[in-house]
Amino acid sequence: GSTYSSKVFRVTFLTLAVSVAVPLLGVTVLLDCPIDPQPISLKEPPLLTGVLEPNTKLRKAERLWENQLVGPESIVNIGDVLFTGTADGKIIKIEDGEIQTIARIGHGPCGGREDEPTCGRPLGMRVGPNNTLFVADAYYGLYEVNPDTGETKPLVSSKTLIEGQKLSFVNDLTVTRDGRKIYFTDSSSKWQRQDYLFLIMEGTDDGLLEYDTVTKEVKVLMVGLRFPNGVQLSPAEDFVLVQETTMARIRRYYVSGLMKGGADMFVENMPGLPDNIRLSSSGGYWVAMAAVRPNPGFSLLDFLSEKPWIKRMIFKLLSQETLTKFVPKYSLVVELSETGSYKRSFHDPNGLTVAYISEAHEHNGHLYLGSFRSPFIGRLDLQHV
Questions:
Q1: Residues 6+ apart with CB under 8 A from 9
Q2: Which of 5, 58, 151, 176 could form a disulfide with 146 if both were Cys (CB 3.0 to 4.6 A apart)?
Q3: What is the arithmetic mean of pLDDT over 262-272?
Q4: What is the pLDDT of residue 341?
Q5: Which residues pair with 64 in a beta bridge?
Q6: The CATH number of the domain covering residues in 50-381
Q7: Using CA atoms, how far apart are residues 74 and 171, in angstroms rounded to an integer?
Q8: Domain boundaries, the chain
Q9: pTM for the full model?
Protein backbone atom coordinates (compact mmCIF):
# COMPACT_ATOMS: atom_id res chain seq x y z
CA GLY A 1 0.00 0.00 0.00
CA SER A 2 2.84 2.34 0.75
CA THR A 3 4.10 2.33 -2.85
CA TYR A 4 0.56 2.99 -4.03
CA SER A 5 0.13 5.96 -1.66
CA SER A 6 3.54 7.37 -2.58
CA LYS A 7 2.55 7.05 -6.25
CA VAL A 8 -0.72 8.86 -5.56
CA PHE A 9 1.22 11.50 -3.64
CA ARG A 10 3.68 11.92 -6.52
CA VAL A 11 0.92 12.23 -9.11
CA THR A 12 -1.06 14.63 -6.92
CA PHE A 13 2.06 16.66 -6.19
CA LEU A 14 3.05 16.85 -9.88
CA THR A 15 -0.51 17.77 -10.89
CA LEU A 16 -0.52 20.52 -8.27
CA ALA A 17 2.92 21.74 -9.28
CA VAL A 18 1.96 21.89 -12.95
CA SER A 19 -1.38 23.56 -12.21
CA VAL A 20 0.49 26.27 -10.27
CA ALA A 21 3.48 26.59 -12.58
CA VAL A 22 1.64 26.82 -15.91
CA PRO A 23 -0.58 29.81 -14.99
CA LEU A 24 2.40 31.43 -13.26
CA LEU A 25 4.47 31.09 -16.42
CA GLY A 26 1.52 32.32 -18.46
CA VAL A 27 1.09 35.35 -16.24
CA THR A 28 4.84 36.03 -16.35
CA VAL A 29 4.79 35.92 -20.14
CA LEU A 30 1.80 38.27 -20.28
CA LEU A 31 3.13 40.73 -17.71
CA ASP A 32 4.75 43.84 -19.09
CA CYS A 33 8.46 44.11 -18.57
CA PRO A 34 9.59 47.69 -17.90
CA ILE A 35 12.96 47.09 -19.55
CA ASP A 36 14.20 45.78 -22.87
CA PRO A 37 17.56 44.30 -21.84
CA GLN A 38 20.38 43.80 -24.33
CA PRO A 39 22.97 41.03 -23.87
CA ILE A 40 26.21 42.51 -22.50
CA SER A 41 29.51 40.81 -22.83
CA LEU A 42 31.72 41.12 -19.73
CA LYS A 43 35.05 39.41 -19.18
CA GLU A 44 35.54 37.29 -16.07
CA PRO A 45 36.12 39.77 -13.20
CA PRO A 46 39.76 40.27 -12.14
CA LEU A 47 40.94 38.20 -9.18
CA LEU A 48 40.94 40.11 -5.90
CA THR A 49 44.65 39.49 -5.28
CA GLY A 50 47.78 41.60 -4.95
CA VAL A 51 46.90 45.28 -4.62
CA LEU A 52 43.20 44.35 -4.82
CA GLU A 53 43.44 41.77 -1.98
CA PRO A 54 40.41 42.21 0.35
CA ASN A 55 41.09 44.08 3.61
CA THR A 56 39.05 45.97 6.19
CA LYS A 57 40.74 49.37 5.80
CA LEU A 58 37.48 51.24 5.12
CA ARG A 59 36.25 50.16 8.56
CA LYS A 60 38.71 52.67 10.01
CA ALA A 61 36.58 55.46 8.56
CA GLU A 62 34.69 57.62 11.01
CA ARG A 63 31.08 58.59 10.41
CA LEU A 64 30.59 62.35 10.45
CA TRP A 65 27.27 64.18 10.95
CA GLU A 66 25.46 60.87 11.25
CA ASN A 67 21.67 61.12 10.69
CA GLN A 68 22.00 64.86 9.98
CA LEU A 69 22.09 64.47 6.21
CA VAL A 70 20.84 61.87 3.77
CA GLY A 71 22.72 60.44 0.79
CA PRO A 72 25.62 62.91 0.38
CA GLU A 73 26.61 61.79 -3.14
CA SER A 74 29.44 64.16 -4.05
CA ILE A 75 31.68 66.29 -1.82
CA VAL A 76 33.78 69.39 -2.53
CA ASN A 77 35.61 71.85 -0.38
CA ILE A 78 36.40 75.57 -0.52
CA GLY A 79 39.17 75.94 2.04
CA ASP A 80 37.99 73.81 4.94
CA VAL A 81 34.30 74.37 4.24
CA LEU A 82 32.62 71.29 2.78
CA PHE A 83 29.70 71.24 0.36
CA THR A 84 27.50 68.33 -0.70
CA GLY A 85 24.13 67.57 -2.28
CA THR A 86 21.64 65.29 -0.55
CA ALA A 87 18.79 62.92 -1.43
CA ASP A 88 16.18 65.44 -0.26
CA GLY A 89 17.27 67.90 -2.95
CA LYS A 90 19.38 70.18 -0.75
CA ILE A 91 22.77 71.74 -1.39
CA ILE A 92 24.47 71.79 1.98
CA LYS A 93 27.39 73.69 3.46
CA ILE A 94 29.30 72.32 6.45
CA GLU A 95 31.42 74.89 8.24
CA ASP A 96 33.04 74.33 11.64
CA GLY A 97 30.91 71.21 12.01
CA GLU A 98 27.67 73.16 11.46
CA ILE A 99 25.30 72.05 8.71
CA GLN A 100 23.43 74.68 6.74
CA THR A 101 21.16 74.36 3.69
CA ILE A 102 22.27 77.00 1.19
CA ALA A 103 20.18 76.17 -1.88
CA ARG A 104 17.57 73.99 -3.50
CA ILE A 105 17.17 73.54 -7.23
CA GLY A 106 13.82 71.74 -7.12
CA HIS A 107 10.91 72.18 -4.71
CA GLY A 108 9.12 70.03 -2.12
CA PRO A 109 7.64 67.75 -1.09
CA CYS A 110 10.79 65.65 -0.78
CA GLY A 111 10.58 62.18 0.66
CA GLY A 112 10.05 59.07 -1.39
CA ARG A 113 11.36 57.95 -4.74
CA GLU A 114 8.31 59.38 -6.52
CA ASP A 115 9.11 62.92 -5.26
CA GLU A 116 12.59 62.95 -6.81
CA PRO A 117 11.69 64.45 -10.22
CA THR A 118 10.20 67.62 -8.68
CA CYS A 119 12.38 67.72 -5.57
CA GLY A 120 15.60 67.40 -7.61
CA ARG A 121 18.66 65.34 -6.81
CA PRO A 122 22.03 67.12 -6.79
CA LEU A 123 24.67 64.57 -7.79
CA GLY A 124 28.08 65.66 -9.12
CA MET A 125 29.51 68.84 -7.62
CA ARG A 126 32.63 70.91 -8.45
CA VAL A 127 34.21 74.20 -7.46
CA GLY A 128 34.72 76.71 -10.27
CA PRO A 129 37.53 79.27 -10.54
CA ASN A 130 35.60 82.06 -8.73
CA ASN A 131 34.68 79.69 -5.89
CA THR A 132 31.22 79.15 -7.27
CA LEU A 133 29.73 75.67 -7.19
CA PHE A 134 28.86 73.83 -10.35
CA VAL A 135 26.17 71.23 -9.69
CA ALA A 136 24.73 68.42 -11.82
CA ASP A 137 21.14 67.83 -10.76
CA ALA A 138 19.84 64.50 -12.07
CA TYR A 139 16.44 65.98 -12.99
CA TYR A 140 17.01 69.69 -13.59
CA GLY A 141 20.37 69.83 -15.39
CA LEU A 142 23.58 71.84 -14.86
CA TYR A 143 23.54 74.74 -12.41
CA GLU A 144 25.89 77.32 -10.99
CA VAL A 145 25.31 78.00 -7.30
CA ASN A 146 26.69 80.91 -5.32
CA PRO A 147 27.91 79.36 -2.03
CA ASP A 148 27.50 82.66 -0.14
CA THR A 149 24.06 83.80 -1.29
CA GLY A 150 22.63 80.42 -2.36
CA GLU A 151 21.54 81.94 -5.69
CA THR A 152 21.09 79.25 -8.38
CA LYS A 153 21.63 79.89 -12.06
CA PRO A 154 20.64 77.32 -14.73
CA LEU A 155 23.36 76.61 -17.31
CA VAL A 156 21.93 73.63 -19.20
CA SER A 157 18.31 72.80 -18.50
CA SER A 158 17.26 69.17 -18.80
CA LYS A 159 14.33 70.46 -20.90
CA THR A 160 16.75 71.54 -23.64
CA LEU A 161 16.93 69.08 -26.51
CA ILE A 162 20.52 68.14 -27.28
CA GLU A 163 20.77 66.68 -30.80
CA GLY A 164 17.09 65.80 -30.60
CA GLN A 165 17.30 64.05 -27.23
CA LYS A 166 16.36 65.31 -23.79
CA LEU A 167 18.65 64.90 -20.81
CA SER A 168 17.01 62.46 -18.41
CA PHE A 169 19.73 61.69 -15.89
CA VAL A 170 22.45 64.37 -15.59
CA ASN A 171 25.01 62.73 -13.34
CA ASP A 172 28.51 64.13 -12.92
CA LEU A 173 30.68 66.96 -14.19
CA THR A 174 34.28 68.14 -14.30
CA VAL A 175 35.39 71.73 -14.95
CA THR A 176 38.51 73.19 -16.56
CA ARG A 177 40.65 75.37 -14.28
CA ASP A 178 39.64 78.52 -16.17
CA GLY A 179 35.98 77.55 -15.78
CA ARG A 180 35.33 77.77 -19.52
CA LYS A 181 34.47 74.16 -20.29
CA ILE A 182 32.29 71.79 -18.30
CA TYR A 183 32.34 68.11 -19.28
CA PHE A 184 29.32 66.20 -18.00
CA THR A 185 27.49 62.91 -18.34
CA ASP A 186 23.88 62.20 -19.11
CA SER A 187 23.58 58.64 -17.85
CA SER A 188 20.44 58.00 -19.86
CA SER A 189 18.12 59.76 -22.27
CA LYS A 190 15.50 57.15 -21.38
CA TRP A 191 15.66 56.41 -17.63
CA GLN A 192 15.68 58.84 -14.73
CA ARG A 193 17.84 58.49 -11.65
CA GLN A 194 15.02 56.90 -9.65
CA ASP A 195 15.15 54.00 -12.14
CA TYR A 196 18.94 53.52 -12.15
CA LEU A 197 18.54 49.73 -11.71
CA PHE A 198 16.57 49.55 -14.96
CA LEU A 199 19.43 51.41 -16.61
CA ILE A 200 22.10 49.04 -15.27
CA MET A 201 20.12 45.97 -16.27
CA GLU A 202 18.96 47.20 -19.65
CA GLY A 203 22.41 48.26 -20.79
CA THR A 204 21.18 51.13 -22.99
CA ASP A 205 23.83 53.58 -24.05
CA ASP A 206 24.32 57.35 -23.75
CA GLY A 207 27.01 59.96 -23.74
CA LEU A 208 29.61 62.43 -22.60
CA LEU A 209 28.83 66.09 -23.28
CA GLU A 210 30.64 69.42 -23.20
CA TYR A 211 29.19 72.78 -22.21
CA ASP A 212 31.02 75.97 -23.13
CA THR A 213 30.25 78.65 -20.51
CA VAL A 214 31.18 81.44 -22.98
CA THR A 215 29.34 80.38 -26.16
CA LYS A 216 26.63 78.58 -24.12
CA GLU A 217 26.86 75.67 -26.57
CA VAL A 218 26.41 72.01 -25.69
CA LYS A 219 28.26 69.41 -27.76
CA VAL A 220 27.99 65.63 -27.64
CA LEU A 221 31.54 64.23 -27.48
CA MET A 222 30.92 60.49 -27.05
CA VAL A 223 27.93 58.23 -27.55
CA GLY A 224 27.43 54.51 -27.03
CA LEU A 225 28.54 54.49 -23.38
CA ARG A 226 26.60 52.10 -21.15
CA PHE A 227 25.66 54.12 -18.06
CA PRO A 228 28.24 56.94 -18.34
CA ASN A 229 28.71 58.07 -14.74
CA GLY A 230 31.61 59.86 -12.98
CA VAL A 231 33.92 62.14 -14.99
CA GLN A 232 37.35 63.62 -14.27
CA LEU A 233 39.71 65.86 -16.26
CA SER A 234 43.36 64.80 -16.16
CA PRO A 235 45.73 67.10 -14.21
CA ALA A 236 47.11 68.39 -17.54
CA GLU A 237 43.55 68.86 -18.85
CA ASP A 238 44.38 66.93 -22.03
CA PHE A 239 41.78 64.20 -21.54
CA VAL A 240 38.58 63.40 -19.66
CA LEU A 241 38.03 60.05 -17.98
CA VAL A 242 34.47 58.76 -17.96
CA GLN A 243 33.28 55.80 -15.91
CA GLU A 244 31.15 53.33 -17.83
CA THR A 245 29.32 51.76 -14.91
CA THR A 246 27.48 48.85 -16.55
CA MET A 247 30.64 47.74 -18.37
CA ALA A 248 32.88 48.04 -15.27
CA ARG A 249 35.42 50.15 -17.13
CA ILE A 250 36.80 53.65 -17.67
CA ARG A 251 37.04 55.30 -21.08
CA ARG A 252 39.31 58.19 -22.00
CA TYR A 253 38.36 61.03 -24.33
CA TYR A 254 41.07 63.46 -25.52
CA VAL A 255 40.07 67.13 -25.34
CA SER A 256 43.37 68.68 -26.45
CA GLY A 257 46.71 67.82 -28.06
CA LEU A 258 47.46 65.56 -31.01
CA MET A 259 44.82 63.00 -30.01
CA LYS A 260 42.04 65.61 -29.65
CA GLY A 261 38.64 64.11 -30.45
CA GLY A 262 39.96 60.56 -30.12
CA ALA A 263 39.03 58.05 -27.44
CA ASP A 264 40.50 54.88 -25.97
CA MET A 265 40.20 52.53 -23.03
CA PHE A 266 41.79 53.69 -19.76
CA VAL A 267 40.94 50.75 -17.45
CA GLU A 268 39.07 47.65 -18.53
CA ASN A 269 37.26 44.96 -16.55
CA MET A 270 37.31 46.51 -13.08
CA PRO A 271 36.55 44.58 -9.87
CA GLY A 272 33.36 46.55 -9.37
CA LEU A 273 30.94 49.01 -10.97
CA PRO A 274 32.64 52.42 -10.94
CA ASP A 275 30.60 55.42 -9.75
CA ASN A 276 32.49 58.71 -9.29
CA ILE A 277 36.16 59.41 -10.02
CA ARG A 278 38.27 62.18 -8.46
CA LEU A 279 41.92 63.25 -8.47
CA SER A 280 44.28 61.85 -5.87
CA SER A 281 47.17 63.87 -4.43
CA SER A 282 49.64 61.44 -6.01
CA GLY A 283 48.58 62.50 -9.52
CA GLY A 284 46.31 59.50 -9.96
CA TYR A 285 42.61 58.93 -9.37
CA TRP A 286 40.26 57.72 -6.65
CA VAL A 287 37.47 55.47 -7.93
CA ALA A 288 34.49 54.54 -5.76
CA MET A 289 32.70 51.31 -6.65
CA ALA A 290 28.89 51.26 -6.41
CA ALA A 291 28.95 47.43 -6.28
CA VAL A 292 31.64 44.78 -6.40
CA ARG A 293 32.15 41.84 -8.80
CA PRO A 294 33.63 39.26 -6.43
CA ASN A 295 36.17 36.81 -7.84
CA PRO A 296 36.45 34.24 -6.35
CA GLY A 297 32.73 34.43 -5.61
CA PHE A 298 29.43 34.98 -7.38
CA SER A 299 28.64 38.17 -9.28
CA LEU A 300 24.94 38.50 -10.04
CA LEU A 301 25.59 41.22 -12.60
CA ASP A 302 28.02 39.02 -14.53
CA PHE A 303 25.69 36.03 -14.28
CA LEU A 304 22.80 38.03 -15.76
CA SER A 305 24.79 40.00 -18.33
CA GLU A 306 24.23 37.63 -21.26
CA LYS A 307 20.80 36.36 -20.14
CA PRO A 308 18.26 39.06 -21.05
CA TRP A 309 15.35 36.59 -20.65
CA ILE A 310 16.19 36.05 -16.94
CA LYS A 311 16.40 39.82 -16.47
CA ARG A 312 12.96 40.17 -18.06
CA MET A 313 11.48 37.55 -15.70
CA ILE A 314 13.04 39.19 -12.64
CA PHE A 315 11.79 42.67 -13.52
CA LYS A 316 8.30 41.39 -14.29
CA LEU A 317 8.01 39.90 -10.83
CA LEU A 318 10.10 42.10 -8.52
CA SER A 319 10.24 45.81 -7.80
CA GLN A 320 13.48 47.81 -7.89
CA GLU A 321 13.27 48.24 -4.10
CA THR A 322 13.14 44.47 -3.62
CA LEU A 323 16.02 43.93 -6.03
CA THR A 324 18.34 46.41 -4.30
CA LYS A 325 18.16 44.15 -1.24
CA PHE A 326 19.99 41.46 -3.23
CA VAL A 327 22.98 43.71 -3.98
CA PRO A 328 25.77 42.73 -1.57
CA LYS A 329 26.87 45.64 0.64
CA TYR A 330 30.53 45.34 -0.28
CA SER A 331 32.35 48.69 -0.21
CA LEU A 332 35.43 49.27 -2.32
CA VAL A 333 37.55 52.29 -3.20
CA VAL A 334 40.61 51.95 -5.44
CA GLU A 335 43.41 54.38 -6.21
CA LEU A 336 44.67 54.34 -9.79
CA SER A 337 48.00 55.67 -11.00
CA GLU A 338 48.07 58.32 -13.74
CA THR A 339 48.35 55.49 -16.28
CA GLY A 340 45.41 53.50 -14.87
CA SER A 341 47.21 50.76 -12.92
CA TYR A 342 45.94 49.87 -9.43
CA LYS A 343 47.98 51.46 -6.63
CA ARG A 344 45.97 50.46 -3.57
CA SER A 345 42.50 49.42 -2.52
CA PHE A 346 40.40 49.98 0.59
CA HIS A 347 37.63 47.49 1.39
CA ASP A 348 34.74 47.05 3.81
CA PRO A 349 33.57 43.53 2.88
CA ASN A 350 30.08 43.76 4.38
CA GLY A 351 29.65 47.50 4.23
CA LEU A 352 29.65 47.54 8.03
CA THR A 353 31.07 51.04 8.47
CA VAL A 354 30.33 52.67 5.13
CA ALA A 355 28.02 51.14 2.53
CA TYR A 356 27.12 52.25 -1.01
CA ILE A 357 30.11 54.55 -1.54
CA SER A 358 29.57 56.86 -4.50
CA GLU A 359 32.64 59.08 -4.25
CA ALA A 360 36.03 59.37 -2.57
CA HIS A 361 37.13 63.02 -2.30
CA GLU A 362 40.64 63.69 -0.99
CA HIS A 363 41.24 66.79 1.13
CA ASN A 364 43.98 67.53 3.64
CA GLY A 365 45.25 63.97 4.07
CA HIS A 366 41.75 62.56 4.47
CA LEU A 367 39.43 60.72 2.12
CA TYR A 368 35.86 61.99 2.43
CA LEU A 369 33.43 59.25 1.42
CA GLY A 370 30.15 60.22 -0.17
CA SER A 371 27.29 57.75 -0.41
CA PHE A 372 24.03 57.96 -2.32
CA ARG A 373 22.20 56.16 0.51
CA SER A 374 24.03 56.57 3.84
CA PRO A 375 22.95 59.19 6.40
CA PHE A 376 26.52 60.48 6.99
CA ILE A 377 29.84 61.39 5.36
CA GLY A 378 32.67 58.93 5.96
CA ARG A 379 36.20 60.19 6.63
CA LEU A 380 39.30 58.04 6.35
CA ASP A 381 42.69 59.25 7.61
CA LEU A 382 45.10 58.34 4.80
CA GLN A 383 48.10 58.50 7.13
CA HIS A 384 46.75 55.62 9.16
CA VAL A 385 45.53 53.02 6.68
A1: none
A2: 151
A3: 97
A4: 98
A5: 377
A6: 2.120.10.30
A7: 10
A8: 50-381
A9: 0.90
